[in-house]
């Protein structure tokens, strides 16, 4: 769901249009301007999401204090879960780069570079939000020749560089091709501004997986830190006297020994009685 | 000599391989983390090369992107592939990144009548074989479906049982019985569905003919039968002495367009007066009804929650809560009901009584 704010300028509008082009047909771009402030009042966003049945949204606006503002967010059960405000610093649009584009509806490859994406909670949520936003529908098979474009996010010096490249597969000697990249799509330099992250319990609730999808634990199998797999076997109690061992002819009981054993047992019994 | 040339050949081959691999290998300090189900790669290496690049790190960004993409493609090419209609397709694994859901988890459906009964009795379903031996055709056939083992629809001879009417059509009887079974099954399925979604089915409660039905019940059944035609009962004739049914007229009555001029004038002046007045008029009937409805809904929601909690924890606490909730709400309802009912009559009067008279002295807080 791509929404324009009351005071969206040309840059922001172009960004929304480009994202719409990238994410067709799974996105809807609202043409009219909506005078709302996502960080203050979320009811209109929730209303829109209910009507269009979209849970991801992007809201663009522009004012003096926050120029070229983009709020990207997601919903859970039609209520706002996370919202992150990003400022656009540098923007090169799809139509400014004169290259051939890939067909719409292709599933992009996503690459996140930079250790910042795992250090701060904000960046981690941002990464999860961007994955959610830009990955296409979940598929089980993918045509290898159909991997056409890649979105590359780099976190560096407090900025996030978003670049999209078209993939060219060149021949290398072996089966895996060599990659050459060609800049294709929108490229944005983003700065993290405000965030509105969901509380921990709401986030936990939204991450709940139904029982059917949880990976089934195999019982009685455990793994070592070194990679050894251990298994447990449960046995019933064994009567060790009746244990079948290898028969060594030399250790066989001679008849004389057996008679003496019987006599000892008898004497024991008499003593007890 | 030969040994040397063999060694040379091997060395050359190795060199060739290394060159080929060089084209696709990328050196990284830390391995990337891959989530192939989402076509995702995360590079944890700190971007040192980029830091010294300056304000426009385009070329460095592109080089970094190329390296990372190469690694991701290497991983993807390792996946098992199949051939689907002239295209090579790789089987992707399940995505490993956990992302929050869009909608909440679906509630577990209530058990159907059969499932409840089976649970009660401890009946478990037996595993049945797919194929059954059919004597007639001398082969293994399905248990049900197309070309099944014991298909009684294809019989060309049915014996008339001793107690049956000799002129009855046994084949038609079989077909009829099958239709009835299918209809019954469908009805039960829809009932289970309605129970799961808590919807109301149109009930045929008093409409099946038993021997002992009262006059009112019969009357009601007759009314329903009359209305269940394609024209919703408009062209159904009445018996000579039958009276028209009560309460089946139009639900809204509109005044004729012109007729009673005095009444029309009065109504229009009243409307203008209400529109001009600064203070909003309070229709006490509607207000009390609204209040009652809200409280009923709250009670129902609370009861539902208590019953859920009660089911989880064990019924006692929930029941105790319910019992406590009972009497005050009933008392409240009664009061509100009286207050509301006192105002029926011409609704305009209720609206007019603003501040002066308080109906019955019982007001909702």
From TrEMBL, chain A:
GO MF terms here are:
rRNA binding
Domain Brix, residue spans: 1-201
Query: Where along the chain is composition biased (Basic residues)?
Result: 244-253
Q: Keyword Endoplasmic reticulum, does the record have it? A: no
> What is the protein's major site of localization?
nucleus
- Report any one BP term from Gene Ontology: ribosomal large subunit assembly
A GO term from the CC aspect = nucleolus
Q: Where in the cell is it found?
A: Nucleus, Nucleolus
Keyword entries, A-Z: Nucleus
Note down the stretches annotated as region Disordered.
Answer: 237-273
Q: Where is the composition biased (Basic and acidic residues)?
A: 254-265
- The family this protein is said to belong to: Belongs to the RPF2 family.
Q: Which PANTHER family match?
A: BRIX DOMAIN CONTAINING PROTEIN (PTHR12728), RIBOSOME PRODUCTION FACTOR 2 HOMOLOG (PTHR12728:SF0)
Q: What is this protein called?
A: Ribosome production factor 2 homolog
Organism equals Sapajus apella (Brown-capped capuchin)
Gene of this entry: RPF2
TrEMBL record, chain B:
Q: Could you list this entry's UniProt keywords, alphabetically sorted.
A: Nucleus, Ribosome biogenesis
Q: Where is the composition biased (Basic and acidic residues)?
A: 235-245
Query: What Pfam families is this protein classified in?
Result: RRS1
User: What compartments host this protein?
Assistant: Nucleus
Top-level taxonomic group: Eukaryota
Region listing for Disordered, in residue ranges: 201-259, 281-365
Principal cellular location given in the protein's record: nucleus
Q: Does the record carry RNA-binding as a key word?
A: no
Transmembrane region positions? none
Composition bias of kind Gly residues appears in: 337-350
Basic residues bias spans: 302-325, 351-365
Record's family?
Answer: Belongs to the RRS1 family.
Recorded protein name is: Ribosome biogenesis regulatory protein
Species the sequence originates in: Sapajus apella
């Amino acid at each position: 769901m791509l929404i324009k704010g009351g005071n969206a300028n040309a840059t922001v509008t172009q960004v929304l249009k480009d994202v719409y082009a990238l994410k067709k047909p799974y996105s809807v771009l609202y043409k009219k301007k909506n005078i709302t402030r996502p960080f203050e009042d979320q009811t209109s966003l929730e209303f829109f999401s209910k009507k269009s049945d979209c849970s991801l949204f992007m809201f663009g606006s522009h004012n003096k204090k926050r120029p070229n503002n983009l709020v990207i967010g997601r919903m859970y059960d039609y209520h706002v879960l996370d919202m992150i405000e990003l400022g656009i610093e540098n923007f090169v649009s799809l139509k400014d780069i004169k290259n051939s584009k890939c067909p719409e509806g292709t599933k992009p490859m996503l690459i996140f570079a930079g250790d910042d994406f795992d250090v701060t909670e904000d960046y981690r949520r941002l990464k999860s939000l961007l994955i959610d936003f830009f990955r296409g529908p979940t598929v089980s098979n993918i045509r290898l020749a159909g991997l056409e474009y890649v979105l590359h996010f780099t976190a560096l010096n407090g900025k996030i560089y978003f670049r999209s490249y078209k993939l060219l597969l060149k021949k290398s000697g072996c089966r895996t091709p060599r990659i050459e990249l060609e800049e294709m799509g929108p490229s944005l330099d983003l700065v993290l501004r405000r965030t509105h992250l969901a509380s921990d319990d709401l986030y936990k609730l939204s991450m709940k997986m139904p029982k059917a999808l949880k990976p089934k634990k195999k019982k009685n199998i455990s793994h070592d830190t070194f990679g050894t797999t251990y298994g447990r076997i449960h046995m019933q109690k064994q009567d060790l006297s009746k244990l079948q061992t290898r028969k060594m002819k030399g250790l066989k009981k001679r008849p004389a020994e057996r008679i003496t054993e019987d006599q000892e047992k008898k004497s024991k019994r008499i003593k007890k009685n | 000599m030969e040994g040397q040339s063999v060694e040379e050949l091997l060395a050359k081959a190795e060199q060739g391989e290394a060159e080929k691999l060089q084209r696709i290998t990328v050196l990284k300090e830390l391995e990337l983390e891959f989530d192939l189900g989402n076509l995702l790669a995360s590079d944890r290496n700190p971007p040192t090369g980029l830091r010294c690049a300056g304000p426009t790190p385009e070329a460095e960004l592109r080089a970094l992107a190329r390296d990372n993409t190469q690694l991701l493609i290497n991983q993807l090419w390792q996946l098992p592939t199949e051939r689907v209609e002239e295209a090579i397709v790789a089987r992707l694994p399940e995505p490993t990144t956990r992302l929050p859901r869009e909608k909440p988890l679906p509630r577990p459906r209530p058990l159907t009548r059969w499932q409840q009964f089976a649970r009660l009795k401890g009946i478990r379903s037996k595993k049945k074989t797919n194929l059954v031996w059919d004597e007639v055709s001398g082969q293994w056939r399905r248990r049900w479906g197309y070309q099944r083992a014991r298909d009684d629809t294809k019989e060309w001879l049915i014996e008339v049982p001793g107690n049956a009417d000799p002129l009855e059509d046994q084949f038609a009887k079989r077909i009829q019985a099958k239709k009835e079974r299918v209809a019954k099954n469908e009805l039960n399925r829809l009932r289970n569905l309605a129970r799961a979604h808590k919807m109301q089915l149109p009930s045929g409660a008093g409409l099946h003919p038993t021997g002992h039905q009262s006059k009112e019940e019969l009357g009601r059944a007759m009314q329903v039968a009359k209305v269940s035609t394609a024209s919703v009962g408009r062209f159904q004739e009445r018996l000579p002495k039958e009276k028209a049914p009560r309460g089946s007229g139009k639900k809204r009555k509109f005044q004729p367009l012109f007729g009673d001029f005095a009444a029309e004038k009065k109504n229009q002046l009243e409307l203008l007066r209400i529109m001009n007045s600064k203070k909003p008029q309070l229709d006490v009937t509607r207000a009390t009804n609204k209040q009652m409805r809200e409280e009923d809904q709250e009670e129902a929601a609370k009861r539902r929650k208590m019953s859920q909690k009660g089911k989880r924890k064990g019924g006692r606490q929930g029941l105790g809560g319910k019992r406590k909730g009972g009497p005050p709400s009933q008392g409240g309802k009664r009061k509100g009901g009286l207050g509301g009912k006192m105002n029926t009559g011409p609704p305009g009067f209720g609206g007019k009584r603003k501040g002066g008279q308080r109906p019955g002295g019982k007001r909702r807080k």
